[in-house]
Amino acid sequence: MATIDDVWLAALTKDEDDAGSKNQFNLTVDIDGGDVFGQDFLLGWNLPGQGSSGLRDGQAGLQQGKPPAAPFESAALSHSSVRLGLRGNDAWAPRHVLVLGRAQPDFQPGRIVALAMETDIRRWLSADSDEGKLTMPVRLVGPGTSDTVIQRVLLLVYTDRGNEIDTESDIKLQIAASGQLMLDKKITHDFNQVRAHWHFLEVERPFTRADVVSKGAIHLSILGTDAWLPKTVFVFGLDTAEGRPDQVVTLSAIPKWDLGMLSTDAAEGSASIALPISN
């Protein structure tokens, strides 16, 4: 297990009427009856003139929290330690939730590990008890090992605010392992600024992180000339083909992207970029 000095929250809202919320989301981490982390997250920053912050129907959010007052040990967490709540009565229907932590002493560039996760959530959250529960537990998941068999991949990306950094071009994620292409998925979406995206991707056949390290690679590509500059890119391997995983393996984690623009126009950027493989 690991000492955690930073926390991230990722979530995907159900794609149904009134599932979104304009309220803030509150995440707490408790160990032995005492909070070691607590923060309100906005998750969905909207552009000026396009409404207040929050997550709309079907929208994803990804945000880094403020560092905890003191690092805490992931080994001391239990299934009731992590709770997610809503700061208001504008009810929210989460579909998936993932809580991440940065593990010491791997500060350069920082090893991001999964701490807790829920998928296919059936409850609603609200400060109004007639509409939902105020909080919900987010059960622990393991970070896996280099030999954990990966049955599915989760791609999380976030585009920041800025001029001409978002894109309407399709992107592609490819993962090769042991000399074979295990994942080759095109993703059609508008990667607008100040937006996060959550994508579960099926693999051609199961593989391990060790397989990727051995004669493998992870490539993120763009399939058009509308250049894109992501801010955050996370690639995780899940040990289940569907449903909630028990192990979430970090394949590549780039909290602050510094690999340049993506574009098929060589004057603007690179059409494909190799992502660093996490240890």
Q: What does the model show?
A:
There is one protein chain. The chain is an all-beta fold and 279 residues long. The chain folds into two domains: 135 residues, Lipoxygenase-1 (Sandwich); 125 residues, Sandwich (Lipoxygenase-1), CATH 2.60.60.20. It is built from one helix and 17 strands. Strand 7 and strand 8 form a beta hairpin. The mean pLDDT is 93.
Overall morphology: globular
Mean pLDDT: 93
CATH superfamily of the largest domain: PLAT/LH2 domain
CATH architecture of the largest domain: Sandwich
CATH topology-level fold name of the largest domain: Lipoxygenase-1
Largest sheet: 5 strands, antiparallel
- Rounded to the nearest angstrom, the radius of gyration is 18 Å
- The proportion of residues in beta strands is 35-45%
Contiguous runs where pLDDT drops below 50 for at least 5 residues: none
Q: Give the % helix.
A: under 10%
Could you tell me the number of beta strands?
A: 17
Write a compact overview of the structure shown.
With 279 residues, this protein is an all-beta fold.
Helices and strands in order, then pairings?
Layout: E1 3-13, E2 25-31, E3 34-41, E4 60-64, E5 72-73, E6 82-86, E7 94-104, E8 111-118, E9 135-137, E10 150-159, E11 171-177, E12 180-187, E13 195-207, H1 209-213, E14 217-222, E15 232-238, E16 248-254, E17 272-274
Antiparallel strand pairs: 1-4, 1-5, 1-7, 2-3, 2-6, 6-9, 7-8, 10-13, 10-15, 11-12, 11-14, 14-17, 15-16
